[in-house]
Amino acid sequence: MDIGSMIRATRKKKNMTIAQICEATGLSQGFMSQVETNKTSPSIATLENIAETLKVPLAYLLLKKDERMKIVRRNERKITTSGPEKLRVEHLGSTKNVRMMLVEFPAGATTGEVPHAHEGEEVHVVIKGKIYAEQGEDSSIFEEGDSFSWNACTPHLVKNVGDETALVYITVYTENEGEQDFF
């Protein structure tokens, strides 16, 4: 864990000096310096005191780097293609088990000619266009603002049945980490 670097970065972001932290917490400057350089590990009580002084939750200081907020700017989104029709997929963001994507379905495009299944649970929101979705014996047509969700282990398919390109916002939850092709 790199708690010291997190404390230092938070302190600097708040324009605080080590002396100010020490004055508020009663800790020595030498000890705080060792904490910030990860040469010593403070007790939970000391961390709580430091977090309170920095006005951040204790849990924030304990987050691993990959657990912290990730930012994906619009112009930095990863763009891939997926499925037999090479649907355009913009990757909006993800955590260890959740992925958010914006999928572009040209008129007539589908996730496949036959329904398919895979691990996970999905939630879809139609942003633009007219989509047909089918899972098992259930099917419906969805338009802008409509949403649907399902357990993806049951065969399913999605098709653009409108005359224009459709955009569908999809969130996928899986138990296993990592990316996989969902179409």
| Share in helix | 10-25%
Termini separation:
37 Å
Following the backbone from N to C, one meets helices and strands in this order, namely: HHHHHEEEEEEEEE
**What is the overall number of helices?**
5
Total count of strands: 9
Shape: elongated
Q: What does the radius of gyration come to?
A: 24 Å
Give the neighbour order of strands across the main sheet: 1-2-3-9-4-7
The poorly predicted ranges are: none
Structural class: alpha+beta
Largest sheet report: 6 strands, antiparallel
Let me know the average pLDDT. Answer: 93
- Taken as a percent bin, the fraction of beta residues is 25-35%
Write out key terms for the chains shown.
3-stranded antiparallel β-sheet, 183 residues, 6-stranded antiparallel β-sheet, 9 strands
Describe the structure.
The chain is of the alpha+beta class and 183 residues long. It has five helices and nine strands. It has helices at residues 3-13, 18-25, 29-36, 44-54, 58-62; strands at 78-82, 87-94, 98-105, 121-128, 130-135, 138-143, 147-151, 156-160, 166-173. It has a six-stranded antiparallel beta sheet with strand order 1-2-3-9-4-7, with no helix packed on it. It has a three-stranded antiparallel beta sheet with strand order 6-5-8, with no helix packed on it. It is elongated.
How does the SSE layout of this entry go?
Layout lengths: L2 H11 L4 H8 L3 H8 L7 H11 L3 H5 L15 E5 L4 E8 L3 E8 L15 E8 L1 E6 L2 E6 L3 E5 L4 E5 L5 E8 L10
Antiparallel strand pairs: 1-2, 2-3, 3-9, 4-7, 4-9, 5-6, 5-8
Structure at a glance:
The chain has 183 residues and is α+β, with helices and mostly antiparallel strands. Helix content is 23%, strand content 32%. The mean pLDDT is 93.
